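Protein in question quoted in full.
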Amino acid sequence: MALELWGGGRFGDLFDDDPKQWRMYADFIGSAGSIFDLITQLYPAYFLPLASLGNLTKAVARGLKDPSSRVIQNHFAISGNLGEIAAKEEVWEVGAQLLGLGLGILILDTPGLVKSFPVLTSTWMSMRLLHLWLRYQSLSVLQFDTINLKRARILIKSHILHSRVLGSVDCNQEENILSWETFARPRIIFGVPLEEMFGGERSVAKIKMLLKLYAKEKHFLVVNQQKTDFEVFVSFKVRKKTISWNDLWVDK
């Protein structure tokens, strides 16, 4: 509980930015917690530490699952019917749990299967991989019309390299929900001074050119030409108080 309180208070905004990624990570971590429960049969003398570690891992998974699921539910509640969406999801979840419970009872009643740990492990692994694959398929078709760092990188890359502005459908299809945002490309650096944009050069002509080019915008966007990696500098104008991804959305 203390871990969930700390994680929710410290990293709560991450779920709003990328709920698909954290919902998928929650299932990965939950699967890891189930592994500790499974190996308690091999090491019964260490049942307590293994079971405790499994419960701790599952608690972390719940801490990621619940807030990311709320964001996804809110996305579907286009008419403010969040309660109805949550109730329908709960019905499907309970149905899946009952189906899994029935299969588990059937497996336990199979003579000789429970005593064969390799067969039991392979059965668990098959069911878990099927669950993760279905979860990935359901999240990969989920489309958000807002901008996060991943989708911003996709938009900028397409606009600069191909002079094409992607719509929300294409942008969501190109988004990799498994990759960590830090390692995505191109790299975007915010709040860069204009002097650094020009490589340390103070050019009045270039500043006037930028002001004219971005006269109707609230930001400047420049590609760093001094590095081999694709890197983008974004500088906000003085009156811009906050950073909003929707301000960076290019309306075709």
Remarks:
- The radius of gyration is 24 Å.
